Amino acid sequence: MTIAPTRIPRQRELQADPRTMGTPEEPRDLRLYRRMRFIRRFEETLLGLFDEGVLNGTTHACIGQEADAVGVIEHVEEGDHIFSNHRCHGHYLARTGDALGLMAEIMGKEAGVCGGIGGSQHVCAPGFMSNGVQGGIVPTAAGIALAMKLRGSDRVSVVFIGDGTLGEGAVYETLNIAALWDLPLLIVLEDNEWAQSTPTELNTAGSMRARFEAFGIPVTETTTTDVAELDALAGNEIAAVRTTGKTRVLLVHTYRLCHHSKSDDHRPEEEVALRWVTEPLAIARQRIAESQWQRIDAEVEAALAEVVATARALP
């Protein structure tokens, strides 16, 4: 039997679209809002394509958690590494702006960031990796952090995990090594209160914070959905990891406003409705003139319409 070799896709030159990613000259409040709006509309567009039957399989959207991705990744520099999980789209888009590459990847097309063979959960690009295996990406992130340390670099690894990942033994093995060896690793725990359809109080004993502190790892904890506040907190955390070379944790109590995957949601409707009041885009709009956020919304919409049209036409 002959097994065809796996194709390794060529890396494409990425040019961030200022309509979705903004520019360095744009006021920070506007740029952060623009990037969150970009992620939100990408995810909503993706779910719409599933409903149309354009896409197969499933996907895990990050609607409601955009501020975590944007606030943290705003401080990631060239040479740093980001590691994500099954809910990775927002992290990838905040890092690269590569809407076409990701859309084509989820469509299974050759122009996708991984040649159409990674799909929604398994995205690999320079400085970015995601994996659908719960907790499996944490040892990898620590390994890259160790490599950076051995090279004498001030580069850091940032790994995003969810509250459900706290049940995985590999996480605690990694915490032990990361603390013992002083690895330049920032763990961002996005606690969205539900592990698929199970609330955290039914599957997570004790304190989330204490789990890290037991290894001597400092934890900064927040319940904010304000991207400006997360931006400031994440900036401090990444700077501390970069200067000390030691592992730290940013524990963000957030909320997922959409299904776990594309159609399953068993949460009380009134609970979800209440969280829409304090969702990240609504909070960000409070400090932006209505004419400004409406202009940004229109620019993002136009950019994504072009992405979808292009992706549909790809072979």
UniProtKB/TrEMBL annotation:
SUPFAM superfamilies (UniProt xref): Thiamin diphosphate-binding fold (THDP-binding) (SSF52518)
Nucleotide-binding among keywords: no
Keywords for the protein's UniProt record, in alphabetical order: Oxidoreductase, Thiamine pyrophosphate
Gene3D superfamilies documented for this protein: 3.40.50.970
Required co-factors: thiamine diphosphate
Superkingdom: Bacteria
Region (Disordered): 1-27
Residues of the Dehydrogenase E1 component domain: 34-307
One Pfam family per UniProt: E1_dh
One Gene Ontology molecular-function label: magnesium ion binding
GO biological-process terms attached to the record: pyruvate decarboxylation to acetyl-CoA
UniProt-listed PANTHER family: PYRUVATE DEHYDROGENASE ALPHA SUBUNIT, PYRUVATE DEHYDROGENASE E1 COMPONENT, ALPHA SUBUNIT BACTERIAL AND ORGANELLAR
Name used for this protein in its record: Dehydrogenase E1 component domain-containing protein
Protein's organism: Rhizocola hellebori
